[in-house]
Amino acid sequence: MSDATLPSQTSLAGTSSLLQRTTGALCLLLAAVWAIAVVQAPVDRVQGIVQKILYVHPPCAFAAYLGFAMTAFYGALYLWKGDERHDQRARAAAGVGVLFATLLLLTGPLWAKGTWGKWWSWDLRLTLTLLLYLVYVSYLLLRSFTEGSERAARFAAVYGIAGLMVIPLNYFAIDLAGGRSIHPENLERGSLGAGMSLPFWLGVAVAIVAYVHLWLRRTEVEHLRGLLAAREATMAHRDDPGGASWDS
Amino acid sequence: MRAFAAILWKDLLVEWRGRDRLAAMGVFALLVVTVLFFAAPPGPLPSQREHLPGLLWVAVVFASVLGLNRSFALELENDALSALALAPVDRGWVFLGKAMASLVVLLVVQALTSLVFALFFDVDLASVAGRYALVAFLGALGLSSIGTLFAAMAVRTSYREVMLPLLLLPLLLPVVLGAVRATAGLLDGEGLLFEPLQLLLVSDGVYLIISFLGFEYVLDE
Amino acid sequence: MSDGAGEPAIRARALEKRFGPVTALHPLDLDVAPGATLAVLGPNGAGKSTLLRMLAGLARPTSGELRVAGDGDGRAARRRRVGLIGHATFLVPALTARENLRFAARLHGLADAEARAEHWLAELDLEGAADRRSGTFSRGMAQRLSIARALITEPALLLLDEPFTGLDPDAAERLASRLADADRRSGATTLLVTHDLARAAQLADQALVLARGRSHGLDEACLADATVLTGAYHDAVSALQGPRG
Questions:
Q1: Contact of A94 with A140, CB cutoff 8 Å
Q2: pLDDT at B172
Q3: Touching check for A102 and chain C: CB below 8 Å?
Q4: What is the number of helices (H) and of strands (E) in chain B?
């Protein structure tokens, strides 16, 4: 087991791509501007200070939904092309999507308690998001409980696509069940209060850029993990050529 | 088509010989109904009875998860699942064979459960039997189709029994809600409501298409 | 069923199976003539099962070309021409021997399932047990039924995956002679994956050694007897595995 068989230091250190560094820097810069804008933004007359969660909560939703859409998209691409890099992208998107969805589901109740007076409401969007969250947590569980990376990739791709396709059905279902939305429809009506628009859209930009940055990094981690698994398999063969097997 | 008929015939024959899946699902559904009865005893007021259709469908969903797991656990013996994967047909037909066999078994379980449910909770299903049968069928079709797709995955994970409900339940909401609403409409004397029926039909269609196409990838090595 | 005209029964060009950086099978070129028997030898994890499962149409190659019995692409079409006998029997325990055979024939879309089932029950001396459930069969009988199950579709290519594992020497000997016999009569091309070099020397007329996903063909002279084959096999494996690290 000589050193030559281990990933060399340079190949690991040199992997942080230009794109990753750019998105990272951009994210920090935007976040700084966003923080100032949030502080400067007027305090809502009705809701008070808690309303400032507006600059965190909906942006997380953008990032979370983007993550889930990309999971399904790269899953489909993987099934079509069979290239495992698409699978790594899908997996990374699911992981980062779940992260933002967790933030979404944590900040939501804070806001809800402050404005509606209760932590949770079975409102249309809340329920929909919770379900989607559960779908993608199941997606990650499915991956970790499935042996064989190729099988895990295929199962997960099918599940990720099914999860996305059911969203509109869930929408109608919850609507039917009387889960009328009490969510503010700010965006559709374009009724962000004066001075709230800039920090809000900055927040969205921060979330999206942060998502992209994390997704790129995560994809790389998945890629390196694959390389490591391959190295380990090779070494197992070296140590015991008749032993550990890949295919039986 | 021949492969579809062969699998349907094989599954039903095996089920008929053992009747173990039917027995397990039936007993389980009855247990759920009994537990639910004591957990949420229905009173005479309408407000105390509006959750009844939901309870009925919860029992059916749980029983179907049990049956779907069993349907594929059987195929692991002697690696019969690989034999199905080797069939020289579009694997969508393999899916349909498995799903329709599960549907037949589930319909029998549903009939029994509904009967007992009607007696326990003093619900008048008899007067709407025909329309209720349609709703039950559409609900069972949705359950069996997407359930068969996920059961074929779950059975080959290291956490078989746990994996299926985790995968299945978050995606079942449309068909379960549709079925519950439609059943509630029938029991309230509103007749067959259009919206839940539409939701059931669309969900069944979407599930069938996803599963038919997805099975190709799920059965691969 | 081999479409003659000099077309090999198996033709693989740069056939490769990878997942990510893990390569199960490095690009492989392979030609097997119709009716020939190819032994695939190698240590565990060499890529033997991977090759077999791609030939069976169960797994997708990452790249390369694969044609079986002159077919084009399309894995469903390939599965029609292939019969697989492995250590798992594929039998449904709750069905009788006859029903198992009918099921296999129908699964392959064959119209005369009943007649075929009777024919193959007779071929493998299973008539007496035709109405017994296969779950009650001994290992040897189950193995026979699984051979009938694979042959009922009259495959142009018969894939044997370690068929001798778990059989006592007598049963293995009987199985070998049955396979040789069935092979002669059906004229099928056979691919035999095995660890048993003596068996390979006895049955095969062509051999392929796989180690760590790389392949090396052995010529006919190597298959003269078990001793010669053992020597050639070990040379090939150490050449493929390279110096130990």
A1: yes
A2: 92
A3: no
A4: 8, 0
**Residue A100 or A40, more confident:** A100
Contact A247 C60 (CB under 8 A): no
The three-state secondary structure class of C156 is coil
Contact B158 A169 (CB under 8 A): no
A244 in contact with C, Cβ within 8 Å = yes
Q: Which letter does DSSP use for residue A50 in this model?
A: G
* A142–B206 C-beta distance less than 8 A: no
Q: Domain-by-domain residue ranges, chain C?
A: 1-81+157-164+195-245
Instruction: Give which of B158, B204, B169 is closest to A138, Cα–Cα.
Output: B169
**Cα-based distances in Å from A11 to A88, C59, C60, C192:** 19, 33, 31, 42
Q: Pick from C84, C88, C109: which is nearest to B3 by CB?
A: C109
Q: How far apart are CA A107 and CA A89, in angstroms?
A: 27
Q: Would you call A53 exposed, middle or buried from its count of C-beta atoms within 10 A (0-12, 13-18, 19+)? A: middle
In this complex, do B178 and A173 lie within 8 Å of one another by their Cβ atoms?
yes
Q: How far apart are the CA of A245 and the nearest CA of chain C, in angstroms?
A: 4
Between B48 and B22, the more confident residue is B22
Give the one of B167, B195, B221 whose C-beta lies nearest to A142's C-beta: B167
For an interface test with A, the pick among C16, C18, C22 (most A C-beta atoms closer than 10 Å) comes out as: C22
The number of distinct structural domains making up chain B is 1
Separation between Cα atoms, residue C215 and residue C217, nearest integer Å: 7
Does the structure show a pLDDT above 60 at A239? no
- Measured between beta carbons, the chain A residues lying within 8 angstroms of B214 are 158, 161-162
Residue A12: is its pLDDT beyond 80?
Answer: no
Kindly give the parts of chain C with pLDDT less than 50: 1-4, 245
Q: What integer pLDDT is reported at residue B111 of this predicted model?
A: 95
Of A198-207, B193-202, C63-72, where does mean pLDDT reach its minimum?
Answer: C63-72
Nearest to A39 by CA among A22, A21, A52, A57: A52
This prediction's pTM: 0.88
When CB atoms are compared, the residue of C56, C57, C92 closest to B80 is: C92
Per-residue pLDDT of A95-136, as tens digits, reads: 999 999 999 998 888 888 877 778 887 777 788 889 889 999
Burial A65-90 (b: 16+ CB within 10 A, else e): bbbbebbbbbbbbbbeebebbbbbbb
CB-based contact C154:C82 (threshold 8 Å): no
Q: Mean of the pLDDT values across residues A7-20?
A: 57
Report d(CA A91, CA A85) in Å as an integer. 10
The beta-carbon neighbor of A158 closest among B169, B206, B214 is: B214
Q: Is B221 on the interface with C (CB under 8 A)?
A: yes
Structure tokens at C157: 């290519």
User: How many CA atoms, within 13 angstroms, populate the side-chain half-sphere of residue A105?
Assistant: 18
C contact set with B (CB within 8 A): 53, 56-60, 76-80, 82, 84, 86, 88-95, 99, 103-104, 106-111
| Closest chain C CA to residue B90 | C76
Asked whether the predicted pLDDT for residue B62 surpasses 90, the reply is yes
Interface contact C44-A230, CB threshold 8 A: no
C1-81+157-164+195-245: CATH, from 3.40.50.300, 3.40.800.20, 3.65.10.10, 3.40.190.10:
3.40.50.300
Residue in A closest to C161 by C-alpha = A248
Ranges of H-type helices in A82-196: 84-115, 124-145, 149-165, 167-176, 186-189
The pLDDT, as a whole number, for residue C72 is 60
Q: What is the pLDDT of residue A9?
A: 39
Q: With an 8 Å Cβ cutoff, are A151 and B195 in contact?
A: no
Q: Are C85 and C93 in contact (CB under 8 A)?
A: no
| Domain extent at residue B80 | 2-219
